[in-house]
Records
---
Amino acid sequence: MQGNLLYAQSGGVTAVINATACAVIETARKHKVRVLAARNGIIGALREDLIDTSRETVAAIAALRHTPGGAFGSCRFKLKSLEESRAQYERLIEVFRAHDIRWFLYNGGNDSADTSLKISRIGKALGHEVTVVGVPKTVDNDLAVTDCCPGFGSVAKYTAVSTLEASLDVASMAESSTKVFVMEVMGRHAGWIAAAAGLAGHGADEPPHVILFPEIVFDEAKFLARVKATVERVGWCTVVVSEGVRNADGRFLSEVGTRDAFGHAQLGGVAPMLAQLVKDRLGYKYHWAMPDYLQRSARHVASKTDVEHAYAVGKAGVQYALAGRNAVMPAIVRTSDAPYRWKIEPVPLSKVANHEKKLPKRFISRDGYGITDAARRYLEPLVRGEDAPPYGKDGLPRYVRLKNTSVAKKLPAYAIADK
Ligand code: F6P
């Protein structure tokens, strides 16, 4: 086929986003289409900072499937509206034209779906037709329409496994030392990752004893009473708290004050805050953990289902693009819970862009601190299966670092900050 395909990664990366990259490049190669990658997402496209993936070996591309992080670099960068900054769009199309880019695959969350949608609408108007496909990814699992998002199954598995393991530790120490363990997980506005911690145990006496969801307003007195009752009954208590928990005024408990390019607050630090509250008010010794980037990069404990989803959306993304299906996203459609069955279908990007899928009420237990059977039915298949990376003699995973050879620039330099 005539032309090049441009692939870019966007937003927070995941343990499996490179499995999608692997699928994109392997599928395009089968169709004899060359894949260029934008360095650091859309920023690289604007700067004409492109990578020639045809310079990578078959083995290096295959190894992307088991390598975490974003192999080409990602970004938090919001394209303004066409009215506000036509120049940005003109520049993108200029870069696409200069490098004969006929297909653009943008791998990201809901903000990236919005960016993809905007680009999908302007190519023709600016005289260079390009087929744009949004490819889903986000540990937050908050994209609309798709049943789940690649990246989530692995962070969910990491969270459930860590909750289980750390709880065995606390249980051992509780008689004479630590009585409360608090773990903070990601998920800005939706409690999907926090809910996954619930897979670690069954029933009120098994961990996690308390899950704090962003969907439920934090009630300090009720929380402390619950922790106290659990310690008195079980001997210890594991708390899993989402970074997105808010108080009755709607303010994040963990807001640190900085914001990214999308205006999102940077979160973090609710675990130590709650642990100290427990100590001050109930007197229990505590430990807390904030896995932070560890949770979304933990490829060593990735979910096999998640890796398969990530690969499948990349493959379908290329197939849709080459078939000329503009402004769509490959969505994961669940056709059965048990046995777990799924397929990939195209959905219009307009149905995904800027929507946020929260944890449904029916997934949260009545007391607000746990998950329901319906949540388990949804979550369990997503964490199922192991897909360990190969390990070297040094005992470490054999992750690949690509050469990332730059494509020669053809256009004048472009300073993003000025536009
Ligand atoms: O992309 C999702 C996410 O992992 C959130 O859960 C988290 O709040 C955020 O990204 C962190 O983003 P950054 O890496 O840009 O600080």
---
Amino acid sequence: MSSSPAAEAARRRTFAIISHPDAGKTTLTENLLLAGGAIRAAGAVRARGENRRTRSDWMKIERERGISVSASVMTFDHQGLMFNLLDTPGHEDFSEDTYRTLTAADAAVMVLDAAKGIEPQTLKLFEVCRLRDIPIVTFINKMDREAQDPFALLDEIASKLALDPAPLYWPAGSGNRFRGMLDLRRDRFIPFARKGHGGPGNEDGHPQSIPFKGNAVVSYLEPDEQEELAENAELMAQASKPFDPQAFLEGHMTPVFFGSALRHFGVDELLEGIGAYAPPPKTVAATRGGEAIHVAPGDREVSGFVFKVQANMDPNHRDRIAFLRLTSGEFERGMKLKVQNTGKQLSVNAPIMFFASDRELAEEAYAGDVIGIPNHGVLRVGDSLSETGTLRFAGLPNFAPEILQRVRVKDPLKAKHLTKALQGLAEEGVTQLFRPTMGADFIVGAVGPLQFEVMADRLANEYQLEVIFEQSPFGEARWISGDRADLEDFQSKHRSAMGVDIDDQPVYLAKSAWDINYAMERYPKVRFERAKERA
Ligand code: G4P
């Protein structure tokens, strides 16, 4: 017998990792799973990925380029807590997908490369977290390599992110002189064992922590190193604010951890910190019948929203898996849920939970959990699901694409086919699709050029369509809204620059950002939006 939905939700920690490519997200993911007991050997995350890819080779690009483009979820139960780790794609072209995944996370771990500090992609992702009030835990990785001065790294966090860094540990050296770290809350020293070979978690683990003031520390630190560490810790305590969990939850402060994901050092401490400080699922704003309400994790009615759809995981079946982040209630397998905007009812007979070792059928799930629902295109990104079908959560943003291209199919007889395929990919959120009011060609939009490659690859493999991308006459897209009369006035004067998205929402397709600014000045009552929250 499980406990109440509120108690179950309270032991959930649903989080994502954000980082610039190469900072160590994959390595950290793997080592967190190891620390949580979800996998036994290092290398499993990648190996499992490889298997999946060979079975469903729709992502040849992913393999060829060695990048991870498909987000997934991994769940593990550790020390009485249920962790849901949302894996976000690392490549910058897929940032839109990452943004959406972050809407399903209650906290984020920001991984910094200790030698590089805050990189452009870290900053971009951080901004999304801030927009959504997601508290951030910082992990300064690669301490086993020559690192920047930790004080400089903290300064950078404070100045670039306007976030108070509060270190919970302090490193002793870096690179070849990395000795370990001081646990500032417990005044214990955690020695770092330099490994010869072999992966983390095997027999050459790190020694147990020891009292910093005790005699045993001399086995790991030279007297001058010990003195320097004590001085730095002292200096740090004077220079920074002490860790305040409330300020962290409000997004003003970040607890800082140091370590080496590759050497499995500092990872157990990080996981413990996430368990102790990261928030359980929150009460969220929603509407019912147009009226604003709040949905609490312990509410009876089961509800959630779809933040990602992944198609053709198995190429033999045109199945799609919608990832549903639960927001309330006790979900049980076989339950019927209704989609708010279409009113369609769905019997969720084969929900999937993504345990790191394997996929499993979910018998029950609670707020904070993510379940995969196989379906045939009924579910779309941004859909709100609930037992009554009347709950609606604020939608997930679609970002204005930065590149627009015209797409045509080589064989004109397959034009109809193309429409369906493009629609499917847009519903999944692979690319955005716009239909200009004038002209027959579709315009696809993406945040980065690699998205077009993924799209062409998938159209060829899954739909047997060879497509050509051509330069589009448009350079920018903005969703427009406002009073009917104002909108009609604007639309009538810009017919050749109007289009609709897959939800038939009007979009202004402009030649350049300059045109948009001009239009904004001339039509102050019309709103031109870069992001659209899906209805
Ligand atoms: P990403 O997902 O953020 O892109 O980074 P990933 O984990 O793939 O790590 C990028 C590179 O950094 C990898 O090396 C990885 O082994 C290395 N790395 C990650 N964490 C640490 C760490 O704590 N210390 C050190 N020294 N290196 C680390 P690679 O050579 O690019 O790949 P691989 O051949 O090791 O797989």
